[in-house]
Design brief:
This protein is mainly alpha-helical. The chain contains 10 helices and no strands. It has helices at about 10-30, 35-40, 45-50, 55-80, 85-100, 105-115, 125-145, 155-175, 180-195, 200-205. It is elongated and about 60 Å long. The model is unreliable at about 120-125 (pLDDT under 50).
């Protein structure tokens, strides 16, 4: 983003621009998205749009970041409201909530698909969602110490979270029907739970 909003009016302008871009993207596709069309739909001048966004890609990146932040907040809120009785319940809750966040919303699916073609992570903007998920899964091993076979290190959290989110992202990008299949959710749960319950092979090798 070229200029950070400081006043309520500026924030409202940016929200109008992003919402206009989302509507065009959802109804007409990325090919129809131009800065002129976004400005017209948002009811702002093209000059006002360029105060905050230098080009179409900048608008898309801001829109994707906003949506990803919303997903992370949604997952954290729903998990905080739940009362898991075991580590397995908590992990299943995280994965179920992630899938629910993507399944019903066509707009969100389109935005996630765009992440694959744009350099969204060049400024590490994607870390927030992954960090939230890693924190929630790590919480399962801390809150329920008998659940995981070993503490979740930074590296093991990195591997696990990217495996789960990578599978979900691939299903969305490929528009695969499995995103709505209960078996897909169950396989993700088996992957995560099995990984957490797997013994620490490196410790076993050291003790040998």
């Amino acid at each position: 983003m070229r200029k950070k909003p400081r006043q309520a009016r500026a924030v409202a302008t940016i929200e109008a621009i992003l919402e206009a871009a989302a509507q065009i993207l959802q109804k007409e596709g990325e090919e129809a998205l131009t800065t002129a069309k976004v400005a017209d739909r948002a009811g702002v001048s093209i000059g006002s749009l360029y105060q905050y966004f230098p080009n179409k890609e900048a608008v898309l990146l801001a829109l994707i970041r906003r949506e990803r932040e919303a997903i992370g907040a949604e997952v954290a809120r729903k998990i905080a409201e739940s009362e898991p009785k075991s580590g397995e319940d908590l992990v299943r809750g995280v994965i179920s909530t992630l899938l629910v966040a993507f399944r019903p919303r066509r707009r969100r699916r389109k935005l996630v698909a765009l992440m694959a073609s744009l350099s969204v992570d060049r400024d590490n903007s994607g870390l927030e969602l992954r960090d939230r998920v890693a924190y929630l899964i790590a919480a399962a091993s801390r809150r329920f110490p008998d659940f995981a076979a070993r503490p979740l290190s930074d590296i093991s959290a990195y591997v696990l979270v990217r495996a789960v989110l990578g599978a979900i992202r691939s299903a969305v990008v490929e528009n695969a029907k499995i995103i709505d299949d209960p078996e897909f959710e169950e396989e993700l749960c088996r992957l995560a739970i099995g990984y957490l319950k797997a013994p620490d092979a490196s410790a076993a090798r050291k003790g040998a």
